[in-house]
Design goal:
Structural class: alpha/beta
Strand order of the largest sheet: 1-7-6-2-5-3-4
Shape: globular
Order of helices and strands: HHEEHEHEHEHEHEH
Number of strands: 7
Helix content: 40-55%
Radius of gyration: 18 Å
Length: about 260
């Protein structure tokens, strides 16, 4: 059961629902005017700016030179419900998040994220793998020559948020790395720190604070030569985890005592 603070119940939660309603209305208006999907997706970035202001959360991003301008899979350690706005703030292209199919049933909100192109995932692993594979295939086929926003498939490889106060990561699921290998999509690792202090798991309250994001050097499946597909996905998984863990350790060393 979620715990609410008085501030969140009286101010933050109503404010968030208001922002969702306004964004949803604007999306419908954009559809009526037959605006491009990239322009409509800009509503997600606008919503993020307003949400961060409402909750008094700041984002400090580093390593932006590693954010390659080509379709890729973004992998980040999962600490908070604020991870999504943090990535939307950091990544200026079109980050497409994976969400439980139940989220798409939520009135107003669900239809909005579906229009934006967010990806439904299911409890059935095989069905989820198929959906993610199709999403990966779709973003790879995006033509960027016409100035389109760069699409990124965003996946939290742990599958759930960590509860560990020291930010110890859960085990990574291998499916997404098999998808990266199959479609030859780069992995962009991102380490994040600070979210646990802002929105502890099991609560719906937002503490004032800063989330630190570090974009790390990408990994390319084509660089893993001379090994089979399964071995390649395992090595890609292990290297991604190590890269994120090293980046997380750096963030904790730099900002952990603030």
């Amino acid at each position: 059961m979620l715990k609410f603070s008085l501030k969140s119940a009286l101010y933050q939660v109503p404010g968030i629902f208001y922002l969702i309603f306004i964004a949803r209305f604007q999306i419908e208006y954009d559809l009526i005017r037959k605006r491009s999907h990239d322009l409509i997706f800009g509503r997600a970035h606008s919503f993020t700016r307003k949400l961060l202001k409402l909750t008094h959360v700041k984002i400090e991003a580093s390593g932006m030179e590693n954010l390659i301008n080509r379709p890729a899979i973004i992998c980040q350690n999962h600490t908070s419900i604020m991870d999504i706005p943090a990535i939307l703030h950091t990544v200026k292209g079109k980050p497409l998040f994976c969400g439980k199919f139940e989220l798409f049933r939520i009135w107003v909100f669900g239809k909005g994220i579906e229009i934006l192109g967010m990806v439904k995932v299911y409890k059935d692993d095989k069905k989820t793998w198929k959906v993610l594979s199709e999403a990966a295939k779709k973003i790879k086929a995006t033509n960027l020559d016409n100035g389109a926003l760069t699409p990124y498939l965003v996946i939290f490889p742990e599958g759930t948020r960590t509860k560990d106060k020291d930010y110890k990561m859960n085990e990574f699921k291998r499916g997404l790395f098999s998808i990266a290998v199959k479609h030859n999509l780069p992995i962009i690792p991102i380490a994040t720190y600070g979210g646990l202090d802002i929105t502890p798991k099991g609560t719906w309250s937002f503490n004032k604070g800063t989330i630190y994001e570090k974009v790390l050097e990408p990994l390319y499946p084509e660089n893993y030569e001379g090994i089979g597909v399964k071995e390649k996905s395992i090595k890609l998984q292990n290297d991604t985890r190590k890269r994120i863990n090293d980046g997380l350790s750096e963030l904790i060393n730099n900002y952990g005592n603030r």
